[in-house]
Specification:
alpha/beta, 8-stranded mixed β-sheet, 11 helices, globular
């Protein structure tokens, strides 16, 4: 069967009721392997965005990929959303799946969800992997995301594409992947713009820095060298507040480091997890 777009995956994988909404999820790997949760970035999705990770990581771990509320195949209830709400949804999802504890990873927006989860549910957080993410929203970052919201409120998919893509990938990756980006551009009109706006508004409230010293789980921080959106300066803030954390800078990678340098990315993740199984 040909899969024409992300929405065509609907119904091919399980959904489960969590906090009165339907959550789409996928489990990959051996039933008895340690669980690794992958939290998506803002407009990522569980069905296809971890294409470079699922096969590799699931050889060693039970990989849980899911769409949070407002994303792709999970329900898009009325806003507002919040990071704490996302953390509660993940907690309920793990409980429904009879998972007592897990390694919690997340990229970008998913990294902020991961921080919220680790702070609220430390007893379940076996380790924490924070990728191209922030613990606070500086004024320059707020302006960038506000420009995305402006395009979304104008119902202009092309403007949203043009406003977001240069921040999400390195210049070299953009130059080498014009066909992939053109294909992605055709799918932007399929996004639920009000839901993406609600997710952006939840992001504006991120303010974890003063609480990060409460994080005692083993922590790995990964950031792309050329991440213009949530770059090295933000990673260093997290490292300062979680001094026991490892910090890895992926040479040549932009914000979407799990795509741009996926082999190095997977190696770092597996090396870190091997020390904390």
């Amino acid at each position: 069967m040909a899969i024409r777009n992300f929405s065509d995956w609907k119904g091919l994988m399980p959904q489960i009721t969590v906090n009165s909404i339907q959550v789409y999820y996928e489990l990959h790997g051996a039933d008895d392997a340690p669980v690794l949760v992958l939290n998506n970035g803002l407009i990522m999705n569980a069905a296809s965005s971890w294409i470079f990770q699922t096969k590799v990581l699931s050889k060693h771990y039970r990989v849980l990929q899911y769409d949070c509320r407002g994303q792709e195949q999970s329900d898009h209830p009325a806003p507002p959303y919040s990071m704490e709400q996302h953390a509660d949804d993940l907690f309920a999802l793990l409980a429904k799946l009879h998972i007592d504890y897990a390694h919690i990873a997340g990229i970008s927006y998913g990294g902020e969800v991961a921080q919220a989860f680790a702070l609220k549910y430390p007893q379940i957080t076996r380790s924490l992997i924070l990728i191209d993410t922030v613990s606070e929203v500086g004024p320059e970052l707020r302006l960038v995301i506000e420009s995305w919201v402006d395009a979304l409120k104008a119902n202009d998919a092309t403007a949203f594409f043009h406003a977001s893509v240069p921040w999400n990938f390195s210049p070299a990756w953009i130059a080498a992947n014009t066909a992939i980006l053109e294909d992605a551009k055709q799918r932007y009109p399929l996004l639920d713009f009000p839901a993406v706006i609600a997710l952006c508004e939840a992001f504006f409230e991120v303010n974890f820095t003063s609480r990060l010293q409460q994080v005692h789980s083993p922590t790995c921080i990964i950031v792309g060298e050329f991440d213009l959106l949530k770059g090295i300066a933000y990673a260093q803030i997290i490292k300062r507040e979680i001094p026991h954390a490892e910090l890895h800078i992926l040479k040549g990678a932009g914000h979407a480091s799990c795509w741009e340098r996926h082999e190095e990315f997977n190696s770092i993740v597996l090396g870190f997890l091997a020390k904390h199984v």
